[in-house]
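Per reviewer request, we include the raw input and output of the structure prediction for the construct analysed in the revised manuscript.
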Amino acid sequence: METNGKKILVVDDEQDIVSVISKVLTKCGYDTITAADGLEGIAKAQSELPDLILLDNLMPNMNGLAALEGLKALEETKDIPVIMVTVLADEDNVNNAIKNGAIGYVIKPFERDVLLEKINNILECKYSPNI
């Protein structure tokens, strides 16, 4: 698997989750950046311009859905693909995330291989929201 130094931003307030995801991504050759809430996530996305964002929904200061809306409203981050990674499994949350621009939805607790497959598919396909 060729990652070409792809950069992934992990936005989650649970340090254990951030640690596990970062470790898995690093082992697979991805560069990882982390943020603890939606506000920090938006700021890091603007400054680092990652290739992909993994975004939790239940966080302090700004939840993931609000952060997703903020990311999609900014010129420099609107085209960055976002996968929601959250415990919220109900249909309304999934539909709201997709309607607001998320291109994937992974429910915690997740299988490592399921998450990696989604990430790899998105990054290998040279995702473009205009297709």
